[in-house]
Amino acid sequence: MVEENRDVKSIRKLTLIVCLAVSIISALAVVFAVLGTAGAGSWAVALAVAMVILLLCAVGLLVALAIYASLANRDSSERVADSLSRVETLLENQGQDIQSLASLACLSDQAKSLIYSDREIEALYESVHAMLLKQDYKSAEALLARMEAQTGLTADVAKLRDKIEHTRQATVEEKIESAINRIDRLLKRFQWAQSKREADRLATLFPDNA
């Protein structure tokens, strides 16, 4: 493609040089024809010769310009073809991205759990446990329904739904014990900030048991 473009440019330059040379030669020929025939005293012959020379030069110029226009159209067509090729490549890439998104919706729970980070899943658990401590079961169930629709993590959501049902049946002492056990698990995993939030929340909700 690069060598071909260079050849096109070379032919263009050569065509322009030919046009310029034809113009100069025609002008000189007309001048010499007029002077020569005028010296002989025949202006009519001089004009006739000049017209013939100009006509031949005009034909030469038209041929040269036709070649130049053909090369220009060829170059323009190549640029258009290159642009269309790029657009086609872009559309193909976008199509692949759309297919990737579509395949993501069909992933199993196990595959999705690899995509959604442990931190995001743990944040879901923390939010649900906070609602359970407040005995706000309706909000907890709404949160689980929303997360299940957005992430498709049915296994984790099912565990939390069981937790909600178990907490509903539990006494206050059992709820406190469950919260303390969760704080203990967080401490063993060195999740200091989260364990402190859980402890503060527990102390706020049950100040008499703190």
Walk me through this protein's architecture:
There is one protein chain. With 210 residues, this protein is mainly α. It folds into two domains: 2-104; 110-209, no CATH class. Helix content is 88%, strand content 0%. The chain contains eight helices and no strands. The protein has helices at residues 2-39, 43-104, 109-115, 118-133, 137-151, 154-169, 172-188, 192-205. Helix 7 packs antiparallel against helix 8. It is rod-shaped, with a radius of gyration of 44 Å. The two termini are 80 Å apart.
Number of helices: 8
Report low-confidence residues grouped into runs of 5 or more.
none
Helix and strand pattern: HHHHHHHH
- Mean pLDDT across the residues is 68
**What is the overall silhouette?**
rod-shaped
Residues in β-strands, percent: under 5%
State the domain count.
2
How far apart are the termini? 80 Å
Helix percent reads: over 70%
